[in-house]
Amino acid sequence: MELMELETFMKAAGDGTRLKILQQLTESEVCVCDLTPLVGLTQPAVSQHLKRLKEAGIVTGEKRGRWTFWSLDRAHPLYDILTGLLSGVPAPERTVCDLEATGEKGCCDA
User: Fold this and answer.
1) How many Å apart are CA 83 and CA 66, to the nearest integer?
2) CA-CA to 23 of 20 to 30 Å: which in 3, 31, 34, 36?
3) Each residue's pLDDT tens digit, 16-36
4) pTM assigned to the model
């Protein structure tokens, strides 16, 4: 891995909001409409964070209709290190399962 690639990775993953997003993606793929309430930001703000993570090669998005479902890119050379680091972060306050349980699941009908 080149130094610039490592720098891009660390800058993208080192932001608090992006860490929250990555933490949500460790369990399963998640639509942006569900990430929005989980990280407490608007859809455009979450999309900008996802764009940064995608540019760094940390996440991948799969289009389904008009929605994109995001997941960690398991092919990234630092995937194991990232998931190891994320396992040491305190668990998120809410997850997609919590959204489903309270009827707050997003409009993507995943």
Assistant:
1) 29
2) 3
3) 999 999 999 998 899 999 999
4) 0.89
